[in-house]
Amino acid sequence: MSESAQAPSPLIPLPRGPVPQAPARARAMIEIKMDGRTVSVPEGSTIIDAARQLGIDIPTLCFLESLTPVNVCRICVVELEGSRTLVPACSRKAEPGMVIQTDSERVRLSRRMVLEFLASSVNVSTAPMFAEYMKRYGARPERFGASPATVAQMPKIDNDLYVRDYAKCILCYKCVEACGTDAQNTFAIAVAGRGFSAHIATEYDVPLPDSACVYCGNCIGVCPTGALMFKSEYDLRLAGQWNESRQTRTDTICPYCGVGCDLTVHAQDGKIVRVTSPVDHSVTHGNLCIKGRFGWQFVEIQPAPKKS
Hints:
Layout: H1 3-6, E1 29-34, E2 37-42, H2 47-53, E3 77-80, E4 87-88, E5 99-101, H3 105-119, H4 128-137, E6 162-164, H5 174-179, E7 189-192, E8 199-202, H6 218-222, E9 228-230, H7 231-238, E10 247-253, E11 262-268, E12 271-276, H8 290-294
Parallel strand pairs: 1-5
Antiparallel strand pairs: 1-2, 3-4, 3-5, 6-9, 7-8, 10-11, 11-12
Helix pairs in contact: 3-4
């Protein structure tokens, strides 16, 4: 057989081989003591990683596994022996010999004050973890005032997909991180102003349709307070019809392309009310595009009656 006959045909694509990967460097194990218990974690782990390994629940608001820690909410602080100040568990790397208290009276006081300051200045009615945290730490935000009026303002409703209600914003920066290098790289929103004037805004504070927003909705997916909310959810809440106890959750795959994004479809009374994606999914890490997050209406379109 000739050499040319043995050569593969250019019309038949060759199967791809495995994608080369750099060998993972083995990480040394370090030992720390937390709440009187000893735990070994890989070098580079954070205090919160070690706490989760021990089953210790450290509250967080601005932290998410898929985002870069920004250390702004300060509710995850713990007491580190030898440290003058409390340290953030979400970003502080574990070091050999650390001795940490995650629930000391000093820690509880700090967390209680943070919760009271936040709940006395913003509307936390759609932040379910707030009620749990305030009960856990005995927070009484009412002692700072009867109503949260510091950032009181009207919701921004300038598109049909989602609503921005910054009266509920705690400036956790998660939406900014998700819109930036951690996920979308759109940079449609950022923190504008300084000090008490700091707020989340589009470039030059233009309406959302005039901004660089691509409506991926990843900012909604990471918002812990409901400051960013599906328009469908907002309308149901406004009408007093939002009821999560009547909602079902169905895990499925996005039908729009071949990436394989994982979706969780939330439905109430037979109608889809919102779509989320799990943070721990290896493909999406909680992120979606405009089609995956908002493009569900086609399944609810009623077919036109047939002409007789």
